[in-house]
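Hi V.,

You were right to ask for the full record rather than a summary. Here it is.
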Amino acid sequence: MPGPTVEREPVEPQSLKKLSLKSLKRSLDLFSPIHGQFPPPDPESKRIRMSHKVHVEYGGIKGAGGGQSTRQANSGATDGGNQASVPNALALPGPEGSRDPQKERDQNALVLGPSLQPKGPTEVGNTGKSTSIVSAPGFSERLTTSAIIERIPSKWPRPVWHPPWKNYRVISGHLGWVRSIAFDPSNSWFCTGSADRTIKIWDVASGRLKLTLTGHIEQIRGLDVSSKHTYMFSAGDDKQVKCWDLEQNKVIRSYHGHLSGVYCLALHPTIDILLTGGRDSVCRVWDVRTKMQIFALTGHDNTVCSVFTRPTDPQVVTGSHDSTIKFWDLRYGKTMLTLTHHKKSVRAMAQHPKEHCFASASADNVKKFSLPKGEFLHNMLSQQKTIINSMAINEDGVMATGGDNGSLWFWDWKSGHNFQQSQTIVQPGSLESEAGIYALSYDMTGTRLITCEADKTIKMWKEDETATPETHPLNFKPPKDIRRF
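Predicted structure:
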């Protein structure tokens, strides 16, 4: 038989907030007899707190000042010959109870070695003096080894001073984005290719239009002028690569084979071959005279957007949207080396005119590599933080990079220091978003820079002749830690 049921009182459901308030009320009833008021401040705890703060913040300075005066008084009373016997002594604090300064000096003398002699001719000053460092009680707690060790000067090369560049001419004539540029080897004219499907030839000295060539049915992305023949080569989004005879001003050859738009073009400096790279992820090698495709350099996983050639191996270097740079063996049509240092598309590359090295630009960084082995040298010391479409280097070691946001940065090649950051100004009537630089090139002398922009203009830049190192000082800080990748 089941036992008698016991009736329980119903429990009132209570929220967590209500229970917390009950607990808080009990605590206040127990520990705080006066409700609604803060407890009175305790002067002793305030004094302890303040003295601790003062000791933490100013203990070292206070101790150094007080210790110096007592030490001066004691040094006057004691014999000065003992101090001269240890010229390079570092006085450290003794135990708290010891008050004898003579005993402190004998117990806590740390003898330093002779100071390093300066190696550079620019350093001046007498380094033969004593390097005694005097520290008071409490000060040594904050003393680190960096205060004792002599600083070694940075081995990073100091940048050469370059005058800033300024815009001196704006040429308008194209009806679309200006996408490519090439200079004539005689340095008397240059040609530009545009999204208006025309190639225009301009006079370098005056900036006047000399000729307009039509023939492409899409925008022209690549241009180059032969130094051995009267030929100009163009490539565009219409998959066509054309050879123009500049004596007749017409197309004499077309190179068929690309399956999509052609983004870059380069002429070999010694052999009559042409290299083109495009959206079909292939760099194609053409014989200029026979129009035959010699090789299709396959290996990239995405668009080949930059290419340059050299007379010696590696004769072909390509950069791609797959963020790699490949060196190619032109004898066998195979990859020699793949550089995977970049994390974003390598849209621009430039070879140094004198040194055996090149630079590559990506949205993450501008990097410098040696040739022919492709060893990574260093990153440039700043980040442009934009897509870099084009870059060029002159013989004076000034590298220019043009960004998608209209930023034009100038770099010192040797040190990687960014000495000037310019922003292009769109022509009146254009949108602010049309401030983009798609191509840039130095003339043959390296004294003039020409940029091709999204506001349909061509801008010419030169060095400011009035600038001096005093008016535009070099603001350079060597890097403390350089990123290796």
